[in-house]
Amino acid sequence: MVYMYLVLFIVYNLQFLSGVLGVKDWKVTYEKPHICALKGSSVTIPCSYQYPRGHRVNETFWINKRETNKDPEDLKQDQHYHDRVTYLGDKSEDCTFRIENVEERDSATYWFRLVTDQVGGKWIGEPGVTLSVTALQVEKSQPSATSQATLTCKNTCFPKVHNDYVWFRDGKYVLNQYDNVLVPEENGMYSCALRRSENVQSAPVKVSMELSVSPSGEILEGSSVTLTCNNKANPPVYRYTWFKNGAEISQSGSQKNYYTITNIRSEDSGKYRCVARNTHGTGTSKLYSVDPTLQWTHTAGLRMELKSHREDQCRITTSLTSPLRTAESTIVSDNIVLLVIITQNE
C-alpha cells in the first residue's frame, strides 16, 4: 500500500515539474491542413512547433519530397522554388512559411522539418499541409457565331463565391460587373479575377459580335439580302451604324440592327460590318463579305455579240439573260479567243 502511494507521488511530481520547467515533446501544429490557392497568387502556411527541453535548434526548413534513407532537401535548394519561398518563422516556436506566385505543379504535400543539436534531434511534422493550386477559367457559352455569348468565371477553389469577381476587357475594368457570369456588351478579350486579387487573372477569352445573313447560302444577283447585327447588350443598344468597305452607309434604316439590300448587284459587293452603341460604349462586328453570284434566267431581251480576233464577226440573239445590264467573259475554244459581251436591249 505504501509502495502504491509512493509511485503515485513520483508520477504526480514528474507531471508537475514538466509543467513548471517547460519540458516538451516533439510537436508541429498546422493551422490549415488543406489549402486551395489560385494560380499566380501567394500562399502563407501558418505553423507552430515545439521540441524537447535541452535541445538547441540548428535548422528549420520546409520540404515536399521524402525518400527512404535519405535526408530531405530544403525547398530553398530546389531550383523550382529557391526564389519563391520564404521562411517567416523563427528557431523557437513559429514555423510559418510562404510561397510566392504559385503554379499548378506546386500542388503537393508540404512538411516542416526541424533539426536540433542532440542525437536523434531530427523531426518532420505530420501530417503536413496539402496545397492544391488551380487557375481561374473563363468558360464561354455561344451556341453559334451569330448568337450572344455568355461568360462564366470558373473557380474550383471557392465554388460558392458568385458575386465577388471583377471582369476585364482588353486589360481594362468592366465597370459594375461583380457576378461570376457576364454577358459581354462589346467585342474584345475578356478575363476575370477575384475582387481584392485583381492581379491574379484568368487566361483571356475572345468575344466577337458577328453578322447573320438571311437567306443563308449563296447570294444571287437580283435577290434581296438582309444582314442582321446580333447583340443583346445590357443596357440595350440604342444605335446601330452600318459600314461597307470602311465607309458609313447613309441609307434609311441604317440605324436599325439589320441592313437590307434589295435587287443585289455586283456593285453591292464588299465587306460589311456593324457598330452597336449603348451607354457603356461600342461593339464592332467582324467583317462579312458580300459577293453576289451571276444568275442566268430564261427571258428575252438580250443581244449577245461574239467577237474574235479575226475580221469576221457574227451577231446572234439569245434567250439567256442576266439581271446585269452588261457582263463580259472570255471563252477559249479551238485555239480561238472569243470575247462575249452581253448588253441589255433598249
UniProtKB/TrEMBL annotation:
<dbReference type="InterPro" id="IPR003599">
    <property type="entry name" value="Ig_sub"/>
</dbReference>
<feature type="signal peptide">
    <location>
        <begin position="1"/>
        <end position="22"/>
    </location>
</feature>
<dbReference type="InterPro" id="IPR056386">
    <property type="entry name" value="Ig_CD22"/>
</dbReference>
<dbReference type="InterPro" id="IPR007110">
    <property type="entry name" value="Ig-like_dom"/>
</dbReference>
<feature type="domain" description="Ig-like">
    <location>
        <begin position="127"/>
        <end position="202"/>
    </location>
</feature>
<dbReference type="InterPro" id="IPR036179">
    <property type="entry name" value="Ig-like_dom_sf"/>
</dbReference>
<feature type="domain" description="Ig-like">
    <location>
        <begin position="204"/>
        <end position="291"/>
    </location>
</feature>
<dbReference type="InterPro" id="IPR003598">
    <property type="entry name" value="Ig_sub2"/>
</dbReference>
<protein>
    <recommendedName>
        <fullName>B-cell receptor CD22</fullName>
    </recommendedName>
</protein>
<keyword id="KW-0732">Signal</keyword>
<comment type="function">
    <text>Most highly expressed siglec (sialic acid-binding immunoglobulin-like lectin) on B-cells that plays a role in various aspects of B-cell biology including differentiation, antigen presentation, and trafficking to bone marrow. Binds to alpha 2,6-linked sialic acid residues of surface molecules such as CD22 itself, CD45 and IgM in a cis configuration. Can also bind to ligands on other cells as an adhesion molecule in a trans configuration.</text>
</comment>
<dbReference type="Pfam" id="PF24518">
    <property type="entry name" value="Ig_CD22"/>
</dbReference>
<dbReference type="Pfam" id="PF13927">
    <property type="entry name" value="Ig_3"/>
</dbReference>
<comment type="subunit">
    <text>Predominantly monomer of isoform CD22-beta. Also found as heterodimer of isoform CD22-beta and a shorter isoform. Interacts with PTPN6/SHP-1, LYN, SYK, PIK3R1/PIK3R2 and PLCG1 upon phosphorylation. Interacts with GRB2, INPP5D and SHC1 upon phosphorylation. May form a complex with INPP5D/SHIP, GRB2 and SHC1.</text>
</comment>
<dbReference type="InterPro" id="IPR013783">
    <property type="entry name" value="Ig-like_fold"/>
</dbReference>
